[in-house]
Amino acid sequence: MSGDFDPALLRTFVAVCRHGSLSRAADQAGRAQSALSTQIRRLEEMVGKRLLHRTGRGMSPTTEGELLLSYANRILALGEAAAARLRERAVAGSVRIGLSEDVAVAALPAALGRLRRSCPQLHLEIVVDDGERLASRWQEGSLDIAIGVCAAFVDEPVETWSVNLHWVCGIDDTPAPDLPLDVIVYAEPCSWRRLVFDALTAAGRDFRVSLTSHNVGATIAAVENGLGVAVLTTECVRPDTMRVISIGPDGATPLSAQFGLYASKRLNESGRAAVSLLRESLRGWTAPAWQDR
């Protein structure tokens, strides 16, 4: 049986479990939903078990699916580690990396894990901060690599990608259309805060700020507990405790944010290797919206 576990099938299964939806996993992979559905069926036929079931909030693994998910994550990690050892990347030293909190809970942990496995002798000094403060650290020269919202940076990124944003509320919350909308926003200075206010104004929706925070974890908790509506990335939406809603008329332009990968021109060999590996990892996660600069 183990010889039948195609890594491509396992990656698709892991992605669907992570996103809680075939459509969201397909959007992130830049593939047709039918192609992912076919791969899941092939995997279920191979193991002779139902691996996913639909709920009112998306898709989640069955008991057998939970078991396979645990093994799948380990199989894929071991494959990456083996490939890294065979490439024999003898990269040592130290690299200072700054991450915007918005991406630190999404694609970046997996990308940084691949970097760590590929370059075990490379010491990573990682700082997670909100977009504006991260950009200030970058301007001060205290970071070698930064990944954050482009609107907060002055310099040109080496690569960019677009991230979809969603209006979300608590799973049992139903905002009243005739009352001001309670919104949860990040503290100033914040480009997303302005994006939210502009979108609500354009939709003609009256609103009031119910909570302000620099922390995405606090924002998620506030949404889950019904304190208001917030704008979150796909990876931050928890289908078991949140639901995506529409703001404004049907067909309105969806919100999105542009993220960038910034690399210092003073990078040594270790830093350049880190940038190269991060680019490889993030391209696999965000394709096809990635753009070279």
From TrEMBL:
PROSITE patterns: HTH_LYSR. GO terms for molecular function: DNA binding; DNA-binding transcription factor activity. The keyword Transcription applies. It comes from the Bacteria. Residues 5-62 form the HTH lysR-type domain. Pfam families: HTH_1 (PF00126), LysR_substrate (PF03466). Keywords: DNA-binding, Transcription, Transcription regulation. Belongs to the LysR transcriptional regulatory family. This is HTH-type transcriptional regulator YofA. The lineage of its organism: Bacteria, Pseudomonadati, Pseudomonadota, Betaproteobacteria, Burkholderiales.
